[in-house]
Each structure stands twice: as structure tokens, then as C-alpha cells.
Design a protein that fits this description.
mainly beta, Methanol Dehydrogenase, Chain A, five-stranded mixed beta sheet, 48 strands, 4% helix, 34% strand
Length: 748
């Protein structure tokens, strides 16, 4: 039997690798991507050369399109972050400050997959003239990257009904990986599937974990050196995180690293008792790689339970961390924890980016990362040592049962977003960042989802700036009591307070100074991927606005926004590529569920459009329009009934209180065939709702009941006696434990 390396955070000595420029260039070629390119003389500056080589960047990327000699005709976007280091930078100038105003849709592809629960966050991958994109329901489409014409479709016909999956934050998939003649997708049911890149037929399929146990996957896998790297989601559901490497040819498990160390492994002592068994720290964003160092860089999610530290005293390694693993073995090489003993959902979800930083006249291989708390860390990626100083800052104490860390790491770099409440509304108590949640609700900035999210930042070696979708200003109420009444271990998931003016921020961080070079303020928090093409930065907004910004100054030079059917919020991840001398910028316009639910002006509408933009071509006056007709995945979304303000005459009235993600009482009894009016009274601080599983299918109350409000949910009880579950239809609340049982007794 082949041996599999199951890694319990065992430490391997970190070696400082001093690789020459020529050696790194050779490594970059060995691991490179892309077709043969026509390039001119090598006129790159030292900084750009150092930044690009050694990260698996395509060979063409080390020569700018504007260099002397023949122009580049072909450029790929072959991996999630464009290069293995995740810079998301393409060295092309066909679309530039002078020409970007002429950018128009060249083709529009509609996936035909969208509903009110979907988020279209997929990162398009373009290799050899074929573009691969996934749908929110895990379809994969292969397109002609020049026209959008559909080549093949993968239908995940064996997927479970989506309502049965413990999806944290909506129906989404963030993209595929391509390599070794295959396309890899991590599905919502925690299956990793390899497809033949030419035909879309399944080559192999493995269960990375069991969806019946509330495991899911949404990340784009990473392909490198014949391996497929994938992690799982479920940190809100009391899971123990892990990341795994599979043989790309066969699907055989090569190694697995558990992000919460077990007994005998370094870091285990940072978890009290058996709390490590379900400590969270899941890996749900795409890792990056330095092939020259042989290191894989993962970022980890929050400790679990989220807001309640009563059972998990300690720093809780390796939650909320950047972790460097040996690419070949999965052994731990170093780690850096950005938040100790997290009680605020400040997980390290945004992917890292690797670049070269010239510090004190000497190039240093760096890794940059933005945490959800608004801090930006720059480390030496060989060792994990901070390049900009990090101070352990004393933070507020809280209830002793929270076991809060007395200090938190604060970098010398400028904060990406506000880290204090700007204005406290009447009747609300605010508190400083890192104040432990407690029984009295506290307004804290950042909130659960105020800072940098899954959308990857970008880095330009031309400017030395990192371009960060930073989230914005959106303080939340934090509220927790010691009893762990749900899987979050808290009594609230957080809630925005009426009357607070929220806004979003898009930041350019000067990595040479640690200061914000420029920032753009927008109406809603920024949840988008980023791409840099030459001197332009492409990024999106909830309202469907897709912008090209001057990378040096932050001036918006071009904007696209459309009311066309199927064009929703610009919450995808852009890619830039070139085919036969024509440059394209492609972006998904399908909105984001969390933004749709949270934004005060209800933007980020759902959509199914993937749009490729280019400068006008002779003879083309309209974009090519392509629509797919995939086999739909069953969603199991409930039928809806409108709320009533009172109970109909003769109905059996059942009063249920909701608070702390629970129903009180948890059960009730009615007679078979009886008209039932559930009086739902929300006494908590989070929205609530209710659905019941009937023989005909799930039936739910339309909309939600706001805090301190009530509504009547009216339906006819089944005619067949038995037990029927009721539950919250809002997001993952039923998987957190917001459920109950309706008993139907025989009619008299």
C-alpha cells in the first residue's frame, strides 16, 4: 500500500535559501506556463525581474510587451493568481492609460446558473486559447477565449441537493485549476474532480471529506508540480481544518496537514482539553507557492467556536495564520499568527501575494497578506519573520471565561480600514477593537465581515504597490454568553446597527513604505478580486460597476456598468490575457449573496454573465453573445408564503420566540390537517425566519423577521401524523443548530 503523509504540524528546519537571479530564472522556466512567445530584448529592471522569476510565472512574463523587438502575441492567465506567487500582474500595455477608454465588451457568456442564493466569484483560467470558468453550482465551462464560444460543459450530475449542504455563505465556487492535461474543481459537496481538459469528461473523482458531516469546498484548487492542493470549509460548524495534496494524474492522496495540531504535535498545547478536535482553522482560499523555496503558503480561518473561547483557552494555533508548508511533504516550515485566540471572526481568508521587496538596499523575498481585522503584514517568506515590525499590543480584557489573549499583533504598516467606531448611535455601547464579546452587545469595528475577504489582492512590480479590496467601515454588534447554544458558540452572528453610515475602501499599499499610497471610498464594502495589467488596476463593485484605475495615482480611467439581463454585481475575479495580439479583460458579473443580504441599499444583484472586454477589432460592432444550457443542480429552495400580521380565524396559534440562533420552545404539537399559525417573535439581535418540512417539500416564511418584530407563518399541517422538522431558512442557520420539531397528532 502506498504511504500517505498525514501531517500533525511536525516541524522541519527552515533553510534560508539564497538563490541567484539566474537560478531563479531557470526555476521560473522549469515551472513556467504558456505558449511560445515572441519577445524582444530583456530590458526589465532588477526589481521586476526579482519579483517575477522563481514564482512559476510564465516565461513570457519576464519581458514587457513594450520592450524593443517583436510584440507579444499570446499571454495566458494559467493559475488562480496568474502566477504561482499570486501577484495577479500581467506585463502588457496594449490596454493602457491612453487606450482604456475604448474598452468594449468583446463577448458575453451566460452560464444560465443563478438564483437569489448564488455568488458568481469564479476566477477564469485561460490556457492556450481556452478559457475555463466554473458556475456557483460547480459546472465547468470551456470556452474559446477569443469569442466566448462554448466548447464543452461539465455537469455535476451526482451533486446532492444544495439545501442539504452546510453552505456557510451561499452557493459559490471560486474557480478551477488547470495542469497536466486536466481541469480540477473542488465541489460544494467536498468532492475533488479531475476533468479531461480537451473533452470535459471525468478522469477521476475523490471525496476530500464527507458532506454528510457538514464539510464543503468553495476554493479554487492550486496545481503545481503534478500535485493538486485543496482545502475545506466549515470553520463555523465545529470542524478541524485541513489542507491536502493529491496526485494530479491519479487522485491518490499524497499528504494532509491538519491546521489544528493533535496530541504530540507542536502547537497542540495552545488548545485546552479536547477543543482541538473541532477547532476550525479551515483552509478555504487558494494557496500560493514559491517553487524555488519549495514552500506552499496557506492562510487559515477562524478558531471555532467563533465568538466563544470558553472551552478553547490558548492562542489556538494555527488558526488565523499564514502557514508555510513543505510542498512535497506537507510538513510545517513556519507559521505567523495574525490574531491570537480569535473571538471576532477575524480569519486570514484573503490569499497571500509573493513579491520582492528592496529593504535597506537589499532584495528580500517577501509575502504580503491582509487580515480581516484591517492589518497588512509583510513577512520574509523564507522564515516568516516580519519585515515591518510587529508589536504585541495590549488589548482590552473581558470576561474571564473568554480566556482572551492579553495582546494582539499590530504591524507598523498603515491600517487598511478604520479600526474604531466613528460614531456610536444613541442607546448602543461601542468598544475598541479586540474587546472580547460578552453578554451585553458591543458595537465594534471591524465587524465579522468588515475587512478584507476572499477576493485576492494584486501586486505590481512597476509601482511596488499592493492593491487590496479592503472591505470598509461596517461595525457590527458582538454578543456572546458562556453557554454554547449553537455551533458558533455565540449568541449572535453579528448585526449591523441602523443609522450607521457604512462605506467601502479600495487601498493601494506602498510596500516600500508600509503606507497607503492612495485609496478609493465607495458606497459599499469592496468584495472583489483584482487584476493588474501594465499601469491599470481592474476591480469591481457591488452595484455592477467594473473599474480600470491608474495604478500609480488611483484615478479612475474607465468604468463599465450595465442593466442588461443577467449582469449582476461585479463581485468576481478578473483575468487578463492575450490571443493573436488582442488583449482581453474578463470578469464575472453575478453578485455576492452576503453583500446582497447585508448592504443597506440591497445591491449586488444576482447574475450569470461572464464578460470579456477588449479594444475594438475591425469588423466587430457588437459583442458575441453565448448562452449555456447546463443540467441544473437541484437547489431544494423552499416555496414561500407571505407573512401575516395576525392569525386567521380558527387557526391553532403556536408562539415561538427566537434569539441566539434558537427557537423557544424547540417543539410543538398540532392536529393532522389543522390550519397552523406560527407566531414568530424575534427577541434577539439577528434577523430570523422559519421553514417547515412538509410532505410536498419545504415551505418557508417569505423574507425575514427583524429584531424586536414579529410575524405570523400560516400553513396547513400534514394529514399524516408524525414528526416534521422546522428550521431557519436563512443561510446556514439551520446547520448552526436553529431547528426544532413539529409533532402532528391524529385528528380527533
Amino acid at each position: 500500500m502506498a504511504l500517505v503523509s498525514i501531517v500533525e504540524a511536525s516541524i522541519v528546519e527552515t533553510k534560508i535559501v539564497e538563490t541567484s537571479i539566474m537560478e531563479k530564472m531557470a526555476i521560473g522556466t522549469k515551472h513556467g506556463w504558456g505558449r511560445t512567445k515572441q519577445i524582444g530584448s530583456l530590458t526589465m529592471t532588477l526589481v521586476i525581474a526579482l519579483a517575477l522569476v522563481g514564482l512559476g510565472v510564465a516565461r513570457h512574463a519576464v519581458t514587457p510587451a513594450h520592450a524593443g523587438g517583436a510584440p507579444i502575441a499570446e499571454l495566458d492567465w494559467p493559475v488562480y493568481g496568474h502566477d504561482l506567487g499570486g501577484m495577479r500582474y500581467v506585463d502588457t500595455d496594449q490596454i493602457n492609460r491612453s487606450t482604456v477608454a475604448g474598452l468594449k465588451p468583446a463577448w458575453i457568456f451566460h452560464t444560465n446558473v443563478m438564483n437569489k442564493e448564488t455568488s458568481f466569484e469564479s476566477q477564469p483560467i485561460e490556457v492556450g486559447g481556452t478559457l475555463y470558468v466554473s458556475s456557483p453550482h460547480d459546472h465547468v465551462f470551456a470556452l474559446d477565449a477569443a469569442t466566448g464560444a462554448l466548447t464543452w460543459t461539465y455537469n455535476p450530475s451526482d451533486m446532492p441537493t444544495l439545501a442539504n449542504l452546510a453552505l456557510c455563505c451561499g452557493q459559490t465556487n471560486r474557480g478551477v485549476a488547470v495542469g497536466g492535461g486536466k481541469v480540477f474543481i473542488a465541489r460544494l459537496d467536498a468532492n475533488l474532480v479531475a476533468l479531461d481538459a480537451r473533452s470535459g469528461k471525468v478522469a477521476w473523482q475523490v471525496a476530500d471529506d464527507d458532506w454528510h458531516n457538514k464539510w464543503t469546498e468553495t476554493m479554487a484548487p492550486q496545481y503545481v508540480d503534478g500535485k493538486v492542493i485543496v482545502g475545506t470549509s466549515g470553520g463555523e460548524l465545529r470542524k478541524r481544518g485541513h489542507v491536502s495534496a493529491y496526485d494530479a494524474a491519479t487522485g491518490r492522496l499524497l499528504w494532509r496537514f491538519y491546521t489544528v495540531p493533535g496530541p504530540g504535535a507542536p502547537g497542540h498545547e495552545t488548545w485546552a482539553g479536547d477543543s482541538w478536535r473541532n477547532g476550525g482553522a479551515t483552509v478555504w482560499s487558494t494557496p500560493n507557492v514559491d517553487p524555488a523555496l519549495g514552500l506552499l503558503y496557506i492562510t487559515t480561518g477562524n478558531a471555532s467556536p467563533d465568538e466563544n473561547g470558553s472551552a478553547r483557552a490558548g492562542k489556538n494555533l494555527y488558526a488565523n495564520s499564514i502557514v508555510a508548508l513543505d510542498l512535497n511533504t506537507g510538513h510545517l516550515r513556519w507559521h505567523f499568527q495574525e490574531v491570537h485566540h480569535d473571538l471576532w471572526d477575524y480569519d486570514s481568508v484573503q490569499p497571500t501575494h509573493l513579491f520582492t521587496l528592496v529593504k535597506d538596499g537589499r532584495p528580500v523575498p517577501a509575502i504580503g497578506h491582509a487580515n480581516k481585522d484591517g492589518n497588512y503584514f509583510v513577512l520574509d517568506r523564507r522564515t516568516g519573520a516580519p519585515i515591518y515590525p510587529v508589536t504585541e499590543m495590549a488589548v482590552p480584557a473581558g470576561p474571564a471565561w473568554q480566556h482572551a489573549s492579553p495582546t494582539q499583533p499590530m504591524p507598523a504598516t498603515e491600517a487598511l480600514i478604520p479600526q474604531t467606531v466613528e460614531t456610536t448611535p444613541p442607546g448602543v455601547m461601542s468598544a475598541p477593537m479586540f474587546t472580547p464579546p460578552q453578554p451585553h452587545p458591543l458595537l465594534i469595528q471591524p465587524g465579522y465581515e468588515s475587512g478584507p475577504e476572499w477576493g485576492a489582492a494584486a501586486y505590481s512590480p512597476r509601482t511596488g504597490y499592493a492593491y487590496i479590496p479592503a472591505g470598509g467601515y461596517e461595525p457590527w454588534l458582538f454578543h456572546a454568553m458562556r453557554p454554547q447554544v449553537n455551533s458558533l458558540g455565540s449568541t449572535a452572528v453579528g448585526a449591523k446597527v441602523p443609522g450607521i453610515a457604512t462605506y467601502g475602501l479600495f487601498d493601494a499599499m506602498d510596500t516600500t513604505t508600509g503606507k497607503i499610497a492612495w485609496r478609493i471610498k465607495v458606497p459599499n464594502k469592496t468584495v472583489t478580486g483584482v487584476a493588474v495589467a501594465g499601469d491599470l488596476v481592474f476591480w469591481g463593485q457591488d452595484n455592477g460597476q467594473f473599474d480600470a484605475t491608474d495604478a500609480r495615482t488611483g484615478k479612475t480611467l474607465w468604468t463599465f456598468q450595465s442593466s442588461m439581463p443577467g449582469v449582476g454585481g461585479a463581485n468576481g475575479s478578473p483575468a487578463v490575457y492575450m490571443i493573436e495580439g488582442r488583449a482581453y479583460v474578463v470578469m464575472a458579473f453575478g453578485g455576492n449573496l452576503r453583500e446582497r443580504a447585508d448592504a443597506p441599499n440591497k445591491t449586488s444583484s444576482p447574475g450569470d454573465a461572464l464578460i470579456a472586454f477588449a479594444l475594438p477589432a475591425p469588423g466587430q460592432t457588437q459583442p458575441h453573445m453565448v448562452t449555456a444550457y447546463p443540467q441544473q443542480v437541484p437547489t431544494g429552495l423552499p416555496a414561500m408564503v407571505a407573512p401575516l400580521q395576525g392569525a386567521p380565524a380558527g387557526a391553532a396559534v403556536v408562539t415561538l420566540l427566537t434569539h441566539d440562533l434558537n427557537y423557544y420552545p424547540h417543539q410543538f404539537t398540532v392536529r393532522a390537517g389543522q390550519r397552523v399559525a406560527v407566531h414568530l417573535v424575534n427577541t434577539g439581535i439577528e434577523p430570523s425566519s422559519i421553514a417547515v418540512q412538509l410532505p410536498s417539500g419545504p415551505l418557508a416564511l417569505q423574507g425575514m423577521v427583524k429584531p424586536h418584530e414579529d410575524a405570523y407563518f400560516v400553513f396547513d399541517a400534514p394529514t399524516r401524523p408524525g414528526t416534521y422538522p422546522f428550521f431557519s431558512p436563512l443561510g446556514p442557520q439551520k446547520f448552526f443548530g436553529m431547528t426544532g420539531v413539529m409533532t402532528v397528532a391524529p385528528a380527533p
